[in-house]
Amino acid sequence: MQKQQLLYKGKAKSVYETDDNDFLILHFRDDTSAFNGERVEQLARKGQVNNRFNAFIMQKLADAGVETHFEKQLSENEVLVKRLEMIPVECVVRNYAAGSLVRRLGLEEGQALSPSTFELFYKDDALGDPMVNESLSISLGWATKEQLEEMQRLTYKVNDVLTAVFDQGGLMLVDFKLEFGVYHGRIVLGDEFSPDGCRIWDKETKKKLDKDRFRQSLGDVIEAYEEVAQRIGVPLD
């Protein structure tokens, strides 16, 4: 598989074409951003840590029957993935109140949500990824009713699988976001899973071990990512 021209450069990953139209190469960069790209810094080892973390999680999901775009890790910073037709609607599951939910509703951070909540957001950086609903998503042609139902089913399945994985490491999976796409007619998970796209706290101390350490200037961001990785068994060496 030969890497070809740059297709897209996101906030933390670069996407490259390959000589096979069914596959792409993702390059995990050390860039770290917050507040819709208003704050950007380089954090040493971040790309490598997130790439290995993501590969570990994708294997856990595949073992549980969740089809993902992940094919194989190519190097410390690169991974081969299926080329999907992405659906511009992001799925968010919340197991505990945090982030924008606390700000919107005035909830206490850490309040347990039972059952877990499911939300949809329209993927548009210029608009700040606004919250939407199923009706809007269907009416505006972003996704069909059947696609949204499958995305919700898969998101909850991911939550069940990964809540157990993190619990075994003494960690709380507070919330996370996922994106999906279509691959040969099937809905497939088309996102990474790392501490960049979820909230993870220590069960006992509630110490934040995710990207909120960067957003809130708490320090030791990559050290926190590595701690989570070590506690759930991600091989970093």
Write the layout of secondary structure elements.
Blueprint: E1 3-9, E2 13-18, E3 23-28, E4 31-34, E5 39-42, H1 46-63, E6 70-73, E7 78-82, E8 85-86, E9 89-96, H2 100-105, E10 112-122, E11 131-132, H3 134-139, H4 145-168, E12 171-178, E13 180-183, E14 186-189, E15 198-202, H5 212-215, H6 221-232
Antiparallel strand pairs: 1-2, 2-3, 3-7, 4-5, 6-7, 8-13, 9-10, 9-12, 10-11, 12-15, 13-14
Number of helices: 6
CATH superfamily of the largest domain: ATP-grasp fold, B domain
**Largest sheet descriptor:** 5 strands, antiparallel
* Overall tally of structural domains: 2
> How confident is the prediction overall: mean pLDDT?
96
CATH architectural type of the largest domain: 2-Layer Sandwich
- Fraction of residues in helix: 25-40%
Which regions have little confidence, pLDDT < 50, spanning 5+ residues? none
Order of helices and strands: EEEEEHEEEEHEEHHEEEEHH
